[in-house]
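Chapter summary example.
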Amino acid sequence: MTGTAHQEQHNTERIGWLRAAVLGANDGVVSVSSIVVGVAAAAGTTPGTILLAGVAALVAGATSMAAGEYVSVQSQADTEHANLAKEARELREQPEAELQELTDIYVARGVEPGLARQVAQQLTAADALGTHAREELGITEQLRARPFQAALASAVSFIVGGIVPVIAAVLLPHSAVGVGVTVVTLLALLVLGALAAYAGGASLWKGALRVTLWGAAAMALSALVGSLFGVQA
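The structure predicted for these 233 residues follows.
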């Protein structure tokens, strides 16, 4: 009788794009809704004016998010590449010292010294750089920095999130834009938080409440600043 293979699915490979997507969508919903409400509150505005302001905010925000995310993640990728190059050089020049360093890592984790030495030797023979990258530097293929992926996820998610208040503002009666867009934004944040939690394998309610509360706090702070400076929003 043969046993079935035990396979586990984890969500670590999603961390890079999921973080960028949640950040982009959350920023899109909150920032674009603030702009839309502010424009809609001005005298003489039309649905066309609101739509134009919303589209401009979407384009500017998505471009800014993509550029910022790319620069940030590329800096992380550059650091990873530099560390890997340094580790590769040390493996060529000091193989015995690197082998002992790997052995010490396993001993510190509770492996018996003799066995730790054997494990270190076998893993070094199979993939020395990959093993040291994982065990010494904490760099794995699943968690490697991917600048283009992060930038694309930020831009697309910003547009997806930001287009919600734009559509709501255009469809709602002018007198109801302020309250209506606020309600729609909070509902969108609830859905966003739940989806992010689901994709990451976390609690739906905790994820939904976390994103909604922080989004609401950001909107409230924006409204407070606006009122202090006499800006109608």
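To summarize the output: Residues 5-12 have pLDDT under 50 and may be disordered.
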